[in-house]
TrEMBL record:
Its cofactor is Mg(2+). The gene is ychF. This is Ribosome-binding ATPase YchF. Residues 159-189 form a coiled coil. Pfam families: MMR_HSR1, YchF-GTPase_C. ATPase that binds to both the 70S ribosome and the 50S ribosomal subunit in a nucleotide-independent manner. It comes from Ktedonosporobacter rubrisoli. One of its GO terms (molecular function) is metal ion binding.
Length: 391
């Protein structure tokens, strides 16, 4: 089961360019706004600095990274001119692609380029975000209202369950009507079960990908780091792209959403270069690594995922589990038999293993632990599972 991040945004914000940078795939990038919905889909590796040193030690036949799936979907902002269409929300085709996404990467354009028209004829990422949010909220509103009709009928039976459901739906309706995001509301455990059936777009975890001009990339990253660190930044004192950037990032901070600055076009060009050349170029710009890598890593975090590792001569591999997963569930990612016949996990922290150089040494120094079925797997655990599948 691949977890999917949907890349959405206004036309010409750089979605497909970002997608290309993320996947190195040659999905077509057009200089025109297309009116039809197109979706590009790709599974990408999650960069993981722990894999190369492990591969160095084990010299395995195979190394395998964790993956996430990205889907680049056009189709928002198409009805920007028509308030009637806007009321109806997004097209069925767009929704088909985006409903099942586990999180959203919302691309917001801060770069100016006369050759790349903007549907609102000016650069203002906060306005764009509000417009996108309105589109998402109105789509959710119609989902909720359809459900209200259904639930009302069911509630006539007198079943208290439906009464509670109706209360939740009314609360959602009210918030969405005010163009608030569903995820800003508070929910009980019971609410969440119902929400799980609604696939609301404004419930999905989100990250903002600010697509900046390459000449402000360095300054943009510095600014976002400050905002991330909780420093006081006033958007009003800033000029040009940085102003819009700060507005969105400060908004994201109050919302608890992630944000990343990239220059999609630069990145799409860099991934075409040999790796060493690309690294040199990045270093010359004073950037530690590709924004695309950060988008993948932040996306992975957004999905509430962690990585545990297995290491041996056959394979060094990163595995994905949901945060909070216990040892048998992690074992089940490898094979259902290992989960079924789970006895215990031998766990070594990645850092400890690297310090020791081998499992024997780690055991000798008491750094390899035996964990039972209630052990909650941690990011960076190297695990070996003992299991027994009896007759
Ligand atoms: N100057 C500049 N142009 C960009 C950047 N990202 C995308 N573009 C250009 O904007 C146009 C639209 O990009 P595209 O990825 O097709 O946008 P989409 O409609 O959101 O998929 C293309 O001509 C891109 O080359 C960027 O970071 N800087
Ligand atoms: Mg596109």
């Amino acid at each position: 089961m691949a977890l999917t991040i949907g890349i959405i945004g206004l036309p010409q914000s750089g979605k497909t360019t970002l997608f290309n940078a993320l996947t190195k795939a040659g999905a077509p990038v057009s200089g025109y706004a297309t009116s039809t919905v197109q979706a590009n889909l790709a599974v990408v590796q999650v960069p993981d600095a722990r894999i190369p040193p492990l591969a160095e030690i084990f010299k395995p036949r195979k190394t395998t990274y964790a993956t996430v799936e990205f889907v680049d979907v056009a189709g928002m902002g198409q009805s920007a001119q028509s308030s009637q269409e806007k009321k109806e929300g997004l097209s069925a085709e767009f929704l088909g692609h985006i409903r099942n996404a586990d999180a959203l990467a919302i691309v917001l354009r801060t770069f100016a380029n006369e050759n790349v028209p903007h549907i609102y004829d000016s650069i203002d990422p906060m306005r764009d975000l509000e417009s996108l949010n309105a589109e998402l909220a109105l789509t959710d509103l119609s989902t909720v209202e359809r459900r209200i009709e259904r639930t009302k009928k069911a509630a006539k039976s007198g079943d208290k369950k439906y009464q509670q459901e109706l209360e939740l739906l009314k609360r959602l309706q009210e918030a969405l009507n005010e163009l608030k995001l569903a995820r800003q509301l508070e929910f009980s455990q019971q609410d969440l079960a119902i929400l799980g059936e609604l696939f609301l777009l404004t419930m999905k975890p989100r990250m903002y990908v600010l697509n900046v001009s390459e000449d402000v990339l360095g300054a943009a990253n510095e600014l976002l780091d400050k905002i991330n660190a909780g420093e006081n930044v006033s958007a009003d004192t800033l000029q040009g792209e940085l102003k819009g950037l700060a507005q969105v990032a400060l908004h994201a901070r109050t919302e608890g959403s992630e944000f990343v600055a990239v220059s999609a076009r630069l990145e799409a060009e860099l991934v075409e270069l040999p790796e060493d050349d690309a690294r040199e170029y990045l270093e010359a710009l004073g950037l530690p690594r590709l924004g695309a890598d950060r988008v993948i890593q932040v996306g992975y975090r957004l999905l509430n995922l962690i990585t545990f590792l297995t290491a041996g001569e056959d394979e060094v591999r990163a595995w994905t589990v949901t945060k909070g997963a216990k040892a048998p569930e992690a074992a089940g990612k490898i094979h259902s038999d290992i989960e079924r016949g789970f006895i215990r996990a031998e766990v070594t922290r990645f850092e400890d293993f690297i310090a020791c150089g081998s499992f024997q040494e780690a055991t000798k120094r008491g750094l390899q632990r035996l964990e039972g079925k209630d052990y909650v797997v941690q990011d960076g655990d190297i695990a070996h599972f003992r299991f027994n599948v009896g007759k």
